[in-house]
Amino acid sequence: MALDAVDEPGRRSGEALVREVTAVAAQATILRRVLLGWVRGRGLPPELAADLELAAYEAMANVVDHAYPDGTHGTMTVTARHDPGAIVVCVADTGRWRDGLSDPLRGRGLPLIRALAPEVTVTSTSTGTTVTMTWPWKAA
């Protein structure tokens, strides 16, 4: 499931971004750029766009690091939409949560996401985890 780095998401106001990729670091990096292009197409202020980009990338990195057993790769799906009054980004996987807190240098991802996004929900089930991040915003 390779992501085409030059794929330009739609720029019409109501068009959502939906991408499913292999949950590896290289794909997360490409998807981060695609998401930023989608965000810029909405006209968000640069500070808000930067917060959204970093929070979403951290959620993608968590999928890469925690969703699938070592040596295996599943998928991650990123969706972004502009709802009335808000930008909503979801990062989902089909793995099982694996806590990396045994390493004292780990475990900062969710606190960072929560610091950057005003509203965050984490839903973890036997079929995967979804992180939903919401930023209030109305287009000018």
Automatic annotation (TrEMBL):
The keyword Transit peptide is assigned to this record: no
Entry keyword ATP-binding: yes
Keywords, sorted A to Z: ATP-binding, Kinase, Nucleotide-binding, Serine/threonine-protein kinase, Transferase
GO molecular function annotation: ATP binding
Sequence intervals crossing the membrane: none
Xref: Gene3D superfamilies: Histidine kinase-like ATPase, C-terminal domain (3.30.565.10)
SUPFAM superfamilies: ATPase domain of HSP90 chaperone/DNA topoisomerase II/histidine kinase
Histidine kinase/HSP90-like ATPase domain location: 23-135
InterPro entries: Anti-sigma-factor_SerPK, HATPase_C_sf, HATPase_dom
Protein name: ATP-binding protein
